[in-house]
């Protein structure tokens, strides 16, 4: 194991895959000369040259489409969005071309493309720069959506995503790029999509949370432990495919579920998990499923408002105590 | 958006202001170019554009090649006599095929949107005969039956697709707007106006990346040029030196909006000039003009890594789609345009050059009609997809377990 920042783990994944397969290239705004807006691709231009690490103009619709066309014609693009807020400018390519070409051609074309970059709120960036896109992209058949919370998962899942023959939305986090943790150095280290990670075992309440919210869940679990309740924390790691079996298995054990999701609540990942759990484990539930999400408002700027906007450990503890009827 | 975690590079722009010879700026070498200059540009990433503004007006002389009708002969374009006759076969096949499509729509054998290409057949046939089929690729919009047939999609497979049958060229999953043929490098058939234009940059990028000299022809209508996707794709093609010919099939109407009502600059071929592309204007009512123009753009520009733009002026005889009576057209306009018909023109050419007799042309027409009729029978007899096929080809993995 090596101790790496999240950004270094992602870079290791891309670098290893690009060393393995010449058909893989990285394209996006500031990925090359600038070394990546968040330094994820730092040094990759020097290693792979300008043929494979390619700067673009500010042209998301154009270069997202370039990636789709290149994937149709035999290459394996990694398309970096500087943030997923900007993917909306290229939305049509991501949701109406990438996932549909295989289907509407009767399976004649592969679509091995990864769209990756940071997603979700990242401090006081206000409404246009704080979008959580996971529910949105998960709504499109043909796309896969990955959202890791720790560097090791970041590496293993990104390597898998790059090897997929389907379009993958790979959601990172500005606030986690500097997060340091142990990362596997195993050759060929991959983690399958659709496989959740049980980060903490417990028998009293299940907390499901992905990406940054996973760390909120772990904090909340510590606080609950001090109160005498053991929470089981599950990180789904991939939103689509979703490892609902792992979540149901945990709920069957704990009979209680709280879902943290920093997205806005309407038709969110938390909504989907809630629906599926009541469908699969209704008889096992001893309390309504509760959610901890952003409110149904745009992200604000003022620091106190932003604190109120983001899901937090205290709110999570409160909701857990409610489903435990321990308030 | 600045990086919050690490400080950004400082850029030493000490030479940025060095006196410039001209106000115009030479483009940087493509990051894809293999000439070693990219490494140099990495050492000097700052702009070389001058901020010293010269006195007086900046004047440029523009020149655009033209390819009018009735200017080119088959043999000078490299077609022997039989090949000239085959051009007529290709164009007739498209017209007879689509005439029957109209009928089949009325009989409710075909559903969904149905956009007919009748009147524009010289564009597809002229272009396909300028490429290396199976190596060069073509991507087009939703008015795609003619292009598919010209590229060699079997009329049975095309008609079966329109009927929604499992034997269709897209297995009944695409319909009229989404004809695909992977092996012939027919890259679709795309339904959203302008959305396929960026795909052409990726298709061409892949050819360049893999070191081939294959090119991509990207067809789109006059209406698609309003989309930002067109501009973004042109710019990417320009900076990466991609082997593309952007071909605007200007059929005069974007749905019901006449071209001169919708463009601030209706000379569409000139729009490529904004990207320093060589630009030309060709008649789409003469298959030889199209073939010459497309051939020139491929061999002089695309295969040399220079993207270019060609406007082909043509005319759509039918409405935008099958349900459009085209009442927005001026009285007499259709008749006037039909007097320029490319199929009639080629028939006349073949007769005038003793390449075919009227009887031979009639026999060819009968033969093509029979081929289309057989395609109809085959499409009618074929099965719809199995209901389970709705789950096929969503993802690469067969029996993908996660579909909700």
Q: Which geometry of chain B do the CA atoms define?
A: globular
Q: What is the count of β-strands of chain B? A: 8
Biggest sheet layout of chain B: 6 strands, parallel
Q: Largest interface by residue count?
A: A-B, 65 and 63 residues
What percentage of residues of chain B falls in helices of 4 or more residues? Answer: 25-40%
Overall CATH architecture of chain B: 3-Layer(aba) Sandwich
Please write the string of helix (H) and strand (E) elements of chain B.
Answer: HEHHEHHHEHEEEHEHEHHH
**CATH homologous superfamily of chain B?**
Thiamin diphosphate (ThDP)-binding fold, Pyr/PP domains
**Strand fraction of chain B:** 5-15%
In short:
The complex is a heterodimer of chains A (327) and B (404). Chain A is an alpha/beta fold and 327 residues long. Chain A is built from twelve helices and 14 strands.
Provide an overview of this structure.
The complex is a heterodimer of chains A (327) and B (404). By secondary structure, chain A is an alpha/beta fold. Chain A has 2 domains: 2-183, Thiamin diphosphate (ThDP)-binding fold, Pyr/PP domains (Rossmann fold, 3-Layer(aba) Sandwich), CATH 3.40.50; 197-323, 3-Layer(aba) Sandwich (Rossmann fold). Helix content of chain A is 36%, strand content 18%. Chain A is built from 12 helices and 14 strands. In chain A, the strands form 3 sheets. Chain A has a 7-stranded mixed β-sheet with strand order 3-2-4-5-7-6-12, with helices on both faces. A 5-stranded mixed β-sheet of chain A has the order 9-11-10-13-14, sandwiched between helices. In chain A, helix 1 packs parallel to helix 7 (151-163). Chain A is globular. The termini of chain A are far apart. The relative contact order of chain A is 0.12. With 404 residues, chain B is of the alpha/beta class. Chain B has one domain: 3-Layer(aba) Sandwich (Rossmann fold). Chain B has a 6-stranded parallel β-sheet, sandwiched between helices. In chain B, helix 3 packs across helix 9. The radius of gyration of chain B is 24 Å and the shape is globular. Classes of the chains: A alpha/beta (327), B alpha/beta (404). Chains A and B meet through helix 3, helix 4 and helix 5 of A and helix 1, helix 6 and helix 7 of B.
